[in-house]
Amino acid sequence: MLAANAAQQGANGLGNDFSVRQMLATKEAYLLFTIFFAACMSGLYLIGIVKDMGVQLAGMDLATAANTVSAVAIFNTAGRIILGTLSDKVGRMRVISFTMLVTVLAIVALSFMTLNHTLFFICVGAVAFCFGGNITVFPAIVGDFFGLKNHSKNYGIIYQGFGLGALAGSFVAKYFGGFHATFMVIGVLSAASLLITLFIKAPKAVEMESEETAQAAELAKA
What we know:
two-stranded antiparallel sheet, mainly alpha, MFS_dom, transmembrane transporter activity
């Protein structure tokens, strides 16, 4: 059936290998960017300040808070392995739905609950675990949505959410009031991303571009 569909698309001049220009013409590209941005903002912000958070929010001493940094690294690695493997079995977007849900719950707990050491470890460990999984699964999602022919270029565009997410967390914390203001922004973005994962689908096949057509389009923009 898949082979028949592929053959039919080829006969019609259609395919699932999007050029960068074609990818950026789809709403799915911007929705995926939003999800990736939210995932990176939550993970990178918490990983970067987890020691300070432990001291200020959970009343940890410096030695215990330092141990949290090691725990975060372990959970991050575990998320890459476990969620990466799970995505091949249950579906990549289902895994992202799970990670966004867990991130929202963890951020709500960090924002509104009285934190003891155990709860703090659980929350930051959960965010780190989900962040590791997101980073692992997202390249494959971009390939599923936009094909493999231009995958490196297409993922390179979506991957800008990594750097921008890191900058956004620091910016919000600096100019809008520290931990809690940043948690609010992360929570809203993560909740919105969770909703996106529930309805987003791979875009329809596009007209296949030749190398010459793609290069001409790039030159025209320049």
